[in-house]
Design a protein that fits this description.
- With 383 residues, this protein is of the alpha/beta class.
- The protein has 2 domains: 177 residues, Rossmann fold, CATH 3.40.50.720; 192 residues, NAD(P)-binding Rossmann-like Domain (Rossmann fold), CATH 3.40.50.
- It is 31% helix and 14% strand.
- It is globular.
- It starts with 6 loop residues before the first strand and ends in an 18-residue tail after the last strand.
- The C terminus is likely disordered.
- It binds 1,4-dihydronicotinamide adenine dinucleotide and 3-hydroxypyruvic acid.
- 3-hydroxypyruvic acid (3PY) binds next to loops.
- Belongs to the D-isomer specific 2-hydroxyacid dehydrogenase family.
- It catalyses: (R)-glycerate + NAD(+) = 3-hydroxypyruvate + NADH + H(+).
- It comes from Leersia perrieri.
- InterPro entries: D-isomer_2-hydroxyacid_DH (IPR050223), D-isomer_2_OHA_DH_cat_dom (IPR006139), D-isomer_DH_CS1 (IPR029752), D-isomer_DH_NAD-bd (IPR006140), NAD(P)-bd_dom_sf (IPR036291).
């Protein structure tokens, strides 16, 4: 039997028991649940990742809704406890065994609509940090090694006029592409399984400047060969696992910059470390890792890698929005509300002082609608 888990309780006499396995940013999500007859239990354990036993202890023998990362054991426990709702605080849900959720009649919520720009901005930051060697230079400065301007000191890559490559030109990939085109006047080449109309409709209104060029590549290899900066934004699934492997690394330019703010396993990280060792001018910016929270051996020693701990969606507005949407997914399901028409247009749920619509903002998959949703609504969480 799992040991008791420490929790903080809001509205103890609430009719519905909702458990959050993590403390989430902001307070609106708490108010929304507590004001709607939910007894909210927030796990206050210090550990970042809870074990299956920890979560079983949290579910107990009566629970109406929950937010975490799961499979059959936990979904069947949630079902036995009378639960019907689960929400990730993420757009992605590759942490969720959707089939197991379906078998147990549990709806799976996620939180699109608030992450796109924040995540794209982090990818753009990593692109710049890697191209201009910001982290190396910062460490050098702090170590007291700077003793005067030198022509060769931390020479990096100019972005203007170079080519940015995007693999997976969905919401985030397209937003990132626009930032790099508009901000740095880069030319674009992208690869996606589908034509990205949202990206192709966009054009540079550059007052009198040379317009940038853009094209959709026939193959991913074309992007890897041609681009100077490549950013990965696909979902993680069987088709994208180890998308960047030794063969594909080998065809990239020796001084290319590779950015990953999608999912760690999209890159074969062991192969990447070898490539970084062999090609000191090849640089990467990584927000996600194959075995999060760990890095593959050797990566931490590579000066040509900028690494950050999965913070792409970490802006205050986004994280508070994610918390609100996750809570409203669970609440909406408990109340029997329908699913909101467009999970990417969620502003009505985010208005601070307004009553949110009587709908679940984004139920990515449940028994009734699972097959009907297009792939664009299926997202994946880390690990
Ligand atoms: N690092 C972080 O904190 C965050 C990471 N993400 C991750 O970013 C990724 C993209 O998110 P969105 O843009 O919202 O999703 P999206 O669904 O709008 O875009 C994904 C794109 O990838 C394309 N794609 C799928 N398989 C492909 C393949 N084999 N080759 C090339 N393209 C392929 C799809 O056609 C789609 O256009 C997801 O993995 C998501 O979980 C999202 C938010 C935050
Ligand atoms: O939303 C997601 O998929 C995340 O990775 C959270 O930042």
């Amino acid at each position: 039997m799992a040991k008791p888990i420490s929790i903080e309780v809001w509205n103890p006499s609430g009719k519905y028991r909702v458990v959050s396995t993590k403390s989430m940013p902001g307070t609106r999500w708490i108010r929304l649940l507590a004001d709607n007859d939910c007894r909210l239990e927030i796990c206050t354990e210090k550990k970042t990742i809870l074990s299956v036993d920890d979560i079983l202890a949290l579910i107990g023998d009566r629970c109406d809704g929950l937010t975490e990362e799961w499979g059959e054991v936990l979904f069947s426990a949630l079902k036995r406890a009378g639960g019907t709702a689960f929400s990730n605080m993420a757009v992605g849900y590759n942490n969720v065994d959707v089939e197991a959720a379906n078998r147990n009649g549990i709806a799976v919520g996620n939180t699109p609509g608030v992450l796109t720009e924040t995540t794209a901005e982090l990818a753009a930051s990593l692109s710049l940090a890697a191209a201009r060697r910001i982290v190396e230079a910062d460490q050098f400065m702090r170590a007291g090694l700077y003793d005067g301007w030198l022509p060769h000191l931390f020479v990096g890559n100019l972005l203007k006029g170079q080519t940015v490559g995007v693999i997976g030109a969905g919401r985030i990939g397209s937003a990132y592409a626009r930032m790099m085109i508009e901000g740095f006047k880069m030319n674009l080449i992208y690869y996606d399984l589908y034509q990205s109309t949202r990206l192709e409709k966009f054009f540079l209104k550059a007052n009198g400047e040379e317009p940038v060029t853009w094209k959709r590549a026939a193959t991913m290899e074309d992007v890897l060969r041609e681009a100077d900066v490549i950013s990965l934004h696909p979902v993680l699934d069987k088709t994208t696992y180890h998308l960047i492997n030794p063969e594909r690394l080998a065809i990239m330019k020796k001084e290319a910059v590779l950015v990953n703010a999608s999912r760690g396993p999209v890159i074969d990280e062991v192969a990447l470390v070898e490539h970084l060792k062999a090609n000191p001018m090849f640089r990467v910016g990584l927000d996600v890792f194959e075995d999060e929270p760990y890095m593959k051996p050797g990566l931490a020693d590579m000066k040509n890698a900028v690494v950050v701990p999965h913070i792409a969606s970490a802006s205050k507005w986004t994280r508070e929005g994610m918390a609100t949407l996750a809570a409203l997914n669970v609440l909406g399901k408990i109340k029997g509300y329908p699913v909101w028409g467009n999970p990417n247009l969620v502003e009505p749920f985010l208005k601070e002082d307004a009553t949110p619509p009587a709908a679940c903002p984004s139920i990515a998959c449940h028994r009734q609608n699972c097959k009907k949703r297009s792939s664009v609504d299926l997202f994946y969480w880390v690990n």
